[in-house]
């Protein structure tokens, strides 16, 4: 079809009058205005609509960052130009043809924008929110030889240190509830395919949002370029990864500590087929969970007999000789006997703290459950002797004497 015949065809479309073109312009501007609908949505406790307009970047050809608001500004300009052109140049066939094409392209693109970004939460925007909030928290650099927590030192966790970046309070409160959305977000951020474990896969996005973060700080608490280029690397065996430090920051500041601790342990324990794999990494994860719970367990749910029973049963599963734990421990520089002493010490702390809660609340019926779990741990053959385990527990029994010497101390010590 020649240019002249195309123009003649456009002229012959009597159904496309100025009013129709103006209606298309109005629809396009309405779609642009519907961005406000996104303001009611939140992702990770962060306003989705505000992030979409201010901070979301599309990577054109997976290289060139392009802000979504530039896209919207471009189409607003096209529609404004078309609106003016209808009145000023609508009688010129070539110009009218160009306006029709521009308006139809604009209309189709804005409809795509509405359904992809406004009506539903866009997955790429969601990923960018996750990266913006949770990436570049830790680096593998450790020039000042900063020490880990005592349980991380004992388990030979890789060297590194936190950066100056801090997690938003809204992220902590987001994990104070448990529903399908929160579960999905938890999996996206802390799952083994996330940007935390595979920073090289998301390198461009991580660097982009680190630079945006630095701009927002106005020179304070900046993330160093060397820290951005050297993200923390977690150990892994067959897709079982160390629980990330980022999780433990969330753990310390959320109400549902028990639930998220069990959730992330199971995520690292189970294969995609649902089969559990007990190895030195999952063992380390369990010891670290109990260590963090002892230090930062602010809520009664982590001192419940149900939580402690789950932890102890999982620990004993690791003692199965078929798991080849001792050989793996040697290759990772971990002293299993010292790790077990630490685990029993921390478990005993949780047990006695739980008993103290029960006595204070006069729920005496749960005392037998605490005793049962502790006796199982002590009497089952593990790395150290039953007598040594008893000694650890007995040395801690004074923790609960202030609540009720007769019921708590005598019952538990006699039972052991």
Quickly list its features:
single chain; 416 residues; mainly alpha; two-stranded antiparallel ribbon; two-stranded antiparallel sheet; 20 helices; 8 strands; 60% helix; elongated; disordered C terminus
Question: Mind sketching the topology for me?
Answer:
Elements (H helix, E strand, L loop, with lengths): L2 H9 L6 H16 L8 E2 L2 E2 H7 L2 E4 L3 E4 H22 L3 H26 L4 H12 L3 E2 L10 H5 L6 E2 L6 H6 L5 H11 L12 H14 L8 H5 L6 E2 L2 E2 L3 H8 L4 H13 L10 H17 L8 H14 L6 H7 L4 H26 L5 H13 L6 H9 L10 H11 L1
Antiparallel strand pairs: 1-2, 3-4, 5-6, 7-8
Helix pairs in contact: 1-5, 2-4, 2-5, 4-5, 13-14, 14-15, 14-17, 15-18, 17-18
Could you please describe the fold and organization of this structure?
There is one protein chain. The protein has 416 residues and is mostly helical. The chain has a domain of 119 residues. 60% of the residues lie in helices and 5% in strands. The chain has 20 helices and eight strands. Strands 1-2 form a two-stranded antiparallel sheet. Strand 1 and strand 2 form a beta hairpin.
Per DSSP E runs of 2 or more residues, the count of β-strands stands at 8
Task: Round the mean pLDDT to the nearest integer and report it.
Answer: 82
List the helices and strands in order: HHEEHEEHHHEHEHHHHEEHHHHHHHHH
Please give the order of strands in the largest beta sheet.
Answer: 1-2
> How far apart, in Å, are the first and last alpha carbons?
94 Å
Q: Proportion of β residues?
A: under 5%
Radius of gyration: 30 Å
Structural class: mainly alpha
Biggest β-sheet, characterized? 2 strands, antiparallel
Any idea what the shape is? elongated
Number of helices: 20
What are the low-pLDDT stretches, counting only 5+ consecutive residues below 50? 12-16, 400-416
Helix content: 55-70%
